[in-house]
């Protein structure tokens, strides 16, 4: 019989005043400890969460009139004693009777623990599981040899109880001495966990998990300077006094009603969350209570093209207890770039990742957030288009990312996704299609969108396009190659081409045939001369009838090939890695109607002919930013010689 199965048999545990729990495994805590090894610090989160629960329960009982005693100061206090090697968590919550300790601490925990061991023997993310099985309290044994409970229940006539357990399955319970309602948990820290007997360490854990708990958490004291009368010149005097150090903000912004909040409040809260960040662009206050409960604030940060740095900026809370900043399964992937907080008691935070992914609530939350974000953007676009446009460079990245990765988001975002042309004008996709319809429709009725990834480098091509009154879009972020693919598939009869992917005359094929002034024989000759001059198989030469005033030679990389490369460079592109070793292939278009073609044919000797051809080819390369190294040096040398001739 497996160990787990043996444990299962003992689910029902007999309890006595001083008792032993009959579990076949002598001591389950070593097993729990092993599972939880990497994250010992959460013991504090669990114990404080219990103390907060107990406090909120007594408050509720009081407001319901079920408890008529004085509520008093309902703070949770955390303290430690380095000499005695103890950490204590003390609350004035509802307390427990001896019976309740046995019921809630012993029984549930042990049955929870056996189930836990059985289910998650091999789980890697056991730390997420603790609470689910009522093991929260027992996480104390990760760091303590002995754990003690001193408690007095709020119930009339209740007697104080003291429980102590050394982490084996034995416990001792006796009459306690506590006079005030509430519970104190004392941990006798084990020798491997001395790190926790440290002010900064504890403060750090509190900052991480307890910052927004709904009950005040006191940890030690701090100095505060206060006015202390006047000095002899009548100026106010200051003195330093000790005050309680309250580490949390009990009513964080997301718990308040949006109607009571101003922009400053949201900006201030953002600063509280991310002290060193630039102001966010805008935000969404989330607030649902059906079919799941969720509140939160999502901020849109200034993103630019920085994919990596931004992740893990959304914090997940469950009733104001910090759970994690890995929100991967709760927030749609494309929204991971957002910042802020989400608080939901309906997210099953204490279970494994794989469970999260299939959880119905999580899916609903996911699509709710997507919907809200789309709504907010749509609203901004409609109501404040100008300001929306000014933010586009920042938000464009994740709108595009969302459109690519989520069909549902695409359907909404297609109405407020923008493209910007080289003149800095913004258009929606539909607006852009109409904008270029008259002049940029090819012979097959395709609308041809032209774009530039680098307006400085592709200037020659942009001007050539502008001369034909073609419009050029700027697509210069790393996500654009994916975005272009995406919208090209979605938009009907639309082709999207980089402005330098072909000679301007051929970018938009309008079926206007031009006459070539060269004879067929001359054309072949010119092609041969260029082939020899270039001497590189990756450059395919063609002599074309272009306008005499167009460039004599143009070097272009076909759209399809370049896009593959771009997508590869930004990662993904879904299985296009087979193009990994693809060499750069270029088309060289020689303008047969330019006077240079005739001049080359007329010049004497092959050397001279090829010299001209090479010079013209290198000029074209130069205008594309492709001429480097030895070729560039050679080109400059030759140009200088020509100047001297
Ligand atoms: P969970 O909090 O998930 O129920 P725990 O193991 O953390 O599991 O706690 C078990 C139970 O012990 C709690 O549900 C509560 O009834 C009781 N308990 C723990 N700590 C306190 C406390 N500080 N005050 C009152 N009751 C407590
Ligand atoms: Mg708990």
Describe the fold and architecture:
By secondary structure, the protein is an alpha+beta fold. It is 37% helix and 21% strand. A nine-stranded mixed β-sheet has the order 1-6-5-4-7-3-2-8-9, with helices on one face. Strands 10-11-14-12-13 form a five-stranded mixed β-sheet, sandwiched between helices. A five-stranded mixed β-sheet has the order 16-15-18-17-19, with helices on both faces. Helix 8 runs antiparallel to helix 9 and helix 15 crosses helix 18. It is elongated. The structure holds adenosine-5'-diphosphate and magnesium ion. The site of adenosine-5'-diphosphate (ADP) has 18 residues, from helix 3 and helix 4.
Helix content: 25-40%
For the record, the CATH architecture of the largest domain stands as 2-Layer Sandwich
Per the CATH scheme, the topology name of the largest domain is: Heat Shock Protein 90
- Whole-number tally of structural domains: 3
Structural class: alpha+beta
Mean pLDDT, to the nearest integer, reads 85
Q: What is the overall shape? A: elongated
Number of strands: 22
Poorly predicted runs are: 1-16, 21-26, 124-131, 573-579
CATH hierarchy, class of the largest domain: Alpha Beta
Q: What do we call the CATH homologous superfamily of the largest domain?
A: Histidine kinase-like ATPase, C-terminal domain
- Strand residue content: 15-25%
């Amino acid at each position: 019989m497996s160990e787990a199965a043996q444990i299962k048999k003992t689910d029902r545990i007999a309890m006595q005043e001083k008792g032993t729990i009959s579990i076949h495994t002598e001591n389950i805590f070593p097993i729990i400890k092993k599972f939880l090894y990497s994250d010992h610090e959460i013991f504090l989160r669990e114990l404080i969460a219990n103390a907060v629960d107990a406090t909120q329960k007594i408050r509720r009982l009081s407001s319901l009139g079920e408890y008529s005693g004085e509520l008093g100061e309902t703070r949770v206090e955390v303290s430690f004693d380095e000499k005695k090697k103890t950490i204590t968590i003390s609350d004035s919550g509802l307390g427990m009777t001896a019976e309740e300790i046995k019921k809630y601490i012993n029984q549930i925990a042990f049955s929870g623990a056996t189930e836990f061991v059985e289910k998650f023997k091999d789980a890697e993310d056991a730390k997420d599981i603790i609470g689910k099985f009522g093991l929260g309290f027992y996480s104390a044994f990760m760091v303590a040899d002995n754990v003690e409970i001193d408690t007095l229940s709020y119930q009339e006539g209740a007697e104080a109880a003291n429980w102590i357990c050394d982490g084996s399955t034995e416990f001792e319970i006796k009459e306690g001495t506590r006079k005030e309602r509430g519970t104190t948990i004392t941990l006798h820290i084990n020798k491997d966990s001395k790190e926790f007997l440290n002010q900064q360490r504890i403060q750090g854990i509190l900052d991480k998990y307890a910052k927004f708990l709904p009950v005040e958490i006191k940890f030690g004291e701090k100095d505060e300077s206060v006015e202390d009368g006047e000095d002899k010149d009548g100026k106010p005097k200051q003195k330093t006094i000790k005050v309680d150090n309250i580490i949390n903000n009990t009513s964080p912004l997301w718990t308040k009603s949006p109607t009571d909040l101003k922009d400053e409040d949201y900006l201030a809260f953002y600063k509280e969350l991310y002290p060193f960040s630039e102001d966010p662009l805008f935000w969404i206050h989330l607030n649902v209570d059906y079919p799941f409960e969720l509140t939160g604030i999502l901020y849109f940060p200034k993103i630019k093209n920085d994919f990596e740095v931004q992740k893990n900026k959304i914090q997940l809370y469950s009733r104001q207890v910090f759970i994690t900043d890995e929100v991967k399964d709760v927030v749609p992937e494309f929204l991971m770039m957002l910042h802020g907080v989400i608080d939901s008691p309906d997210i099953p935070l204490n279970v494994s990742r794989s469970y999260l992914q299939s959880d119905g609530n999580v899916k609903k939350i996911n699509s709710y957030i997507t919907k809200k974000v789309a709504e907010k953007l749509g609203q901004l676009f409609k109501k404040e288009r100008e300001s929306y446009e000014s933010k586009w460079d920042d938000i464009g990245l994740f709108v595009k990312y969302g459109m690519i990765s989520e069909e549902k988001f695409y359907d909404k975002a297609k109405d407020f996704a923008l493209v910007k042309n080289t003149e800095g004008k913004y258009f929606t996709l539909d607006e852009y299609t109409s904008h270029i319809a008259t002049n940029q429709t090819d012979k097959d009725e395709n609308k041809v969108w032209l774009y530039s990834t680098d307006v400085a480098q592709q200037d020659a091509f942009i001007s050539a396009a502008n001369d034909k009154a073609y419009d050029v879009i700027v697509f210069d972020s790393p996500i654009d190659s994916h975005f272009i693919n995406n919208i090209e598939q979605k938009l009907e009869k639309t082709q999207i081409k980089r402005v330098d992917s072909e000679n301007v005359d051929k970018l938009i094929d309008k079926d206007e045939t031009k006459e070539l002034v060269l004879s067929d024989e001359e054309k072949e000759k010119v092609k041969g001369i260029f082939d020899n001059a270039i001497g590189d198989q990756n450059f395919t030469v063609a002599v074309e009838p272009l306008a005499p005033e167009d460039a004599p030679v143009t070097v272009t990389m076909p759209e399809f090939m370049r896009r593959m490369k771009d997508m590869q460079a930004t990662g993904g592109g879904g299985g296009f890695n087979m193009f990994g070793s693809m060499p750069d292939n270029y088309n060289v278009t020689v303008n047969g109607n330019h006077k240079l073609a005739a001049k080359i044919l007329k010049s004497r000797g092959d050397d001279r002919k090829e010299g001209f051809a090479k010079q013209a080819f290198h000029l074209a390369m130069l205008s594309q930013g492709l001429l480097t190294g030895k070729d560039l040096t050679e080109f400059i040398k030759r140009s200088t010689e020509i100047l001297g001739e």
